[in-house]
Amino acid sequence: MPGIDKLPIEEALEDSPQTRSLLGVFEEDTAAISSYYHQLFQAMQRIYDAQNELSAATHLTSKLLKEYEKQRFPLGGDDEVMSSTLQQFAKVIDELSSCHAVLSTQLADAMMFPITQFKEKDLKEILTLKEVFQISSDGENQLSTKMRNFHLMLFVSLLVKGEVMEDVYTSRKKQHQTVMHYFLALNTLQYKKKIALLEPLLGYMQAQISFFKLGSENLTQQWEDFLTNIGTSVQNVRREMDSEVDAMQQTIQDLEQASDMLYMPDPDPSKIPINRNLTRKAGYLNMRNKTGLVSSTWDRQYFFTQGGNLMSQARGDVAGGLVMDIDNCSVMAVDCEDRRFCFQISSFDGKKVAILQADSRKDCEEWIATINNISKRIYLSDNPEETAARANQSALEAVTPSPSFQQRHESFRPSTQGRPRAARTSSQGSVGSDSPALSSLSLDSLVAPDTPIQFDIISPVCEEHATPAKNASQGRRTNPFGESGEPQSGDSEDSILHQLFIVRFLGSMEVKATESTDVIYETMRQILAARAIHNIFRMTESHLLIKIWLLLLLPIFPLSGVVLCASHQENKRLFGFVLQTVGGRVDGRPVATCYIFESNNDGEKICDSVGLAKQIALHSEMDRKATQKQRELDKAKEKQQEELTKQKQIEKDLEEQSRLIAASSRPNPPAADGQFLVLSNSQSEDNDAGEESRKKEESEA
Fold first, then answer.
1. The pLDDT value given to residue 178
2. Which of 124, 197, 516, 522 is the most exposed place for a label (fewest CB within 10 A)?
3. What is the C-alpha to C-alpha distance for residues 654 and 648, in angstroms, rounded to an integer?
4. List of residues 6+ apart from 25 with CB closer than 8 A
5. How does it sit in the membrane (predicted)?
6. Domain ranges of the chain
7. Which regions in the chain score pLDDT beneath 70?
């Protein structure tokens, strides 16, 4: 009912229907107030809880900022400026934490206490009075029934009548008191709800004002200047971050465009050039590990070069481990049965070999080029990549013809002043490389123009050298355990010199000149340049066995045909020899071929071994010829002795025949004449045969 703001207490005893209707309106208003204030209490409770959490979080933040200087960050380092700045922030935040603690206390007293009292006391009191009012209303109904029964009783005693009267009186009095107190509480609630709403808000605002005043007193001008400087620093860092992010985004775009072809499993080398100037490389490779006689497994690891060492590191490992030393090592591409893009690394002494597989042909060739550069110790120079690029450029420029032989060799080998004059190559003597005619030599005088380069080794042995070796091999059984059955004469000669070297064939060319070691240097230059231009890294690895008569490789080289042998002046592992075949001739000169090899050992040592083998072979040949000559003389003497013996036998036969003729001169019967004729004919035949035998023996002698 509009306009009515309180219940009439004076009408509580009458309990009229109008009063009951008005009471219902007040009860409905009380229920709405209870629901609303319950929600308001929850909101203010959240404010109070948040303030307590903020106070605790602020205190924890201050504590963590103070402990920053004790932290050890892997990438942070010792930043004293940041540490001092954070200490100042910790001091300010610690003061703010104290202010927040004071604010929490004020909110508990001025905001939460009034609304909690209204909710827990006033609203609960009304609910209790409402329950009592309901009970009293039910009691009034029972009292009305009792009064109606009392009036129906005509003959009752005075005592009973007095008791009933007393009960009615007490019940009405209690009901009236309950209704009046209930009405009083409902009327008072209209005022308390205003107080319960305004008093917490007033306390909240006063607490906030007090907090801000306290913060204003703590945050002086000094702190404002400090915060201004920090804000400027933050803006500078943000601008630096934005510029760095832009640069990194641009780098990402460039890398995405440049790496588009690298996403292919095997990119085309013509579109992505191969970098052969690397002295450091890293990446994932597959390494073959033998698990049995014929079985093997491939393990994928991260490989990287570190100085002159090849390192590997598995996933999850903290540091890498040494695979092998690649100083003075050899590397070449190999063919595997189940893998492609494989290459093999052999240590200097040949005792350790590693077979690796790359993900692409480009990666494989870059690994081979990098290991080759490291093997040459280019990484020890001041600018390794520039040195490697200069070496590769020299190899590329080496194929361009120059008017002078010396000019072509300026980038390939040092001057010839320090070269030894004695050559250890030919059995005919040494030809010094400092010959006066060297300056007048041309390229055509050493190597014929457009001479093809053979990268596959081919046996140059002719029939006259192959036949004895074949016969020797057929006449003796090979023992697989290295034991010999009966000693042979050739075995005793071969046992004088027997040296084994691990070599890799680089190539061979037909040459024209065989008098100077410069032809070997020129052949080395052209073969290395051709390999660099055509990206040929594959080399055939073999065992070079030096014996007295032969150089045993995959093919067989007759030692008598080796006329020159020399090693490179700078790269001691390179050596070559010129082989002159006996059979064919070109333009009236014997065919000569220069073979170039790379060894794990010093090339000079191999050339010395070849020279020693030729000297031993020369002395052996001289001894053999002397022995053969002596045998021929002994054979001639034996034939002469046999001839004298035959002559004496002939003379004896002639004497016997003369005696028979003298005896036959006597008269004989006819039968004897026939016999004489037969003997005479036999005698003439014997004389003719003896004369022919004597002439033949004389001609043979």
1. 83
2. 124
3. 10
4. 1, 4
5. Peripheral membrane protein
6. 17-218, 282-394, 496-641
7. 1-4, 76-78, 138-161, 164, 221-222, 394-445, 448-450, 458-498, 547-555, 582-588, 665-701
Which residues lie below 8 Å from residue 612, measured CB to CB, with a gap of 6+? 497
Is residue 238 within 8 A of residue 152, CB to CB? The reply is no
Q: What end-to-end distance do the CA atoms of the chain give, in Å?
A: 168
Q: What is residue 291's DSSP assignment?
A: -
How would CATH label the architecture of 17-218?
Up-down Bundle (1.20)
CATH topology for 282-394 is: PH-domain like (2.30.29)
The dihedrals phi and psi of 310, each to the nearest 5 degrees, come to -105, 120
Same fold: 282-394 with 496-641:
yes
Q: Is the dihedral of CA 590, 591, 592, 597 positive or negative?
A: negative
The pLDDT assigned to 151 comes to: 56
pLDDT number for residue 458:
67
- What does the alpha-carbon distance between residue 375 and residue 308 come to, in Å, rounded to a whole number? 7
DSSP β-bridge partners for residue 368: none
480 CB contacts (<8 Å, ≥6 apart)?
A: none
> CA-to-CA distance for 519 and 405, rounded, in angstroms?
11
- The pLDDT of residue 355: 93
CA gyration radius, the chain? 61
- 69 Cβ neighbours under 8 A, 6+ residues apart: 83, 86, 87
Nearest CA to 355 among 367, 366, 369, 370? 367
pLDDT value at residue 389: 83
Class of residue 604 by CB neighbours under 10 A (exposed 0-12, middle 13-18, buried 19+): middle
Question: Phi/psi of residue 545, each to 5°?
Answer: -105, 115
User: 315: which 2 tokens?
Assistant: 């996933």
DSSP run (H or E) holding 346: strand 342-346
